[in-house]
Amino acid sequence: MLTRVRAEVPQGVTYGDVTGLFADAGARVIATDIDEARLAALCEQHPTVVTVAGDVATPEGADALIAAAGNRLDVLCNNAALIEATVLEETDEALWDEVIRVNLTGPFLLSKRALPLMLEGGGGAIVNTGSPPRFVATAAGLPTQPGSTVCLG
């Protein structure tokens, strides 16, 4: 059983950094990405990480990732995001659909599939990260939010 670990996560960390926090705490980590080269680089940094290449915003990709967990899943971290800096009048429907597919459909598909496995194991945690509003706030000269806190366990 993974013990509770608390880590302050500053702005600008990568998913590789957060993956390392989990792996270093003794968790069995399964990472996914549509970019196989990025997964290979992640494994070089953290050799214990299991990788599954695919698009988790598709039912097949979500199924593959959850299947890799086997019979136990304690934490699901939905961290995929697509950010496109554009203005409404220049945003076409195809871009809108892709942003919604990646940022909302992917977490929905994974959470829906993870929940039964977590409940069978006695519980778990689903962590959803989002595209922080600091990108917009920074561009507008407004104050931004401080770093986030991640609890593993």
Keywords:
disordered N terminus, 6 strands, two-stranded antiparallel ribbon, two-stranded parallel ribbon, 153 residues, alpha/beta
Structure description:
The protein has 153 residues and is of the alpha/beta class. The chain has 5 helices and 6 strands. The strands form 3 sheets. It has a two-stranded antiparallel sheet with strand order 1-6. Helix 3 runs parallel beside helix 4. It is globular. The termini are close together. The model is unreliable at 1-11 and 141-153 (pLDDT under 50).
As residue ranges, the low-confidence spans are 1-11, 141-153
Helix run count: 5
- Rg over CA atoms, rounded to whole Å, is 16 Å
- What is the residue-mean pLDDT, rounded to a whole number? 78
The description of the largest β-sheet is: 2 strands, antiparallel
Adjacency order of strands in the biggest sheet: 1-6
What distance separates the N and C termini? 8 Å
Choose one word for the global shape: globular
Order of helices and strands: EHEHEHEHEHE
User: What is the helical fraction, as a range of percent?
Assistant: 40-55%
Total number of strands: 6
Class based on secondary structure composition and strand pairing = alpha/beta
What percentage of amino acids are in beta strands?
15-25%
Would you kindly provide a brief summary of this structure?
The chain is α/β, with parallel strands linked by helices. It has helices at 15-24, 36-45, 59-68, 93-120, 134-139; strands spanning 5-9, 30-33, 50-53, 75-78, 125-128, 148-152. The relative contact order is 0.19.
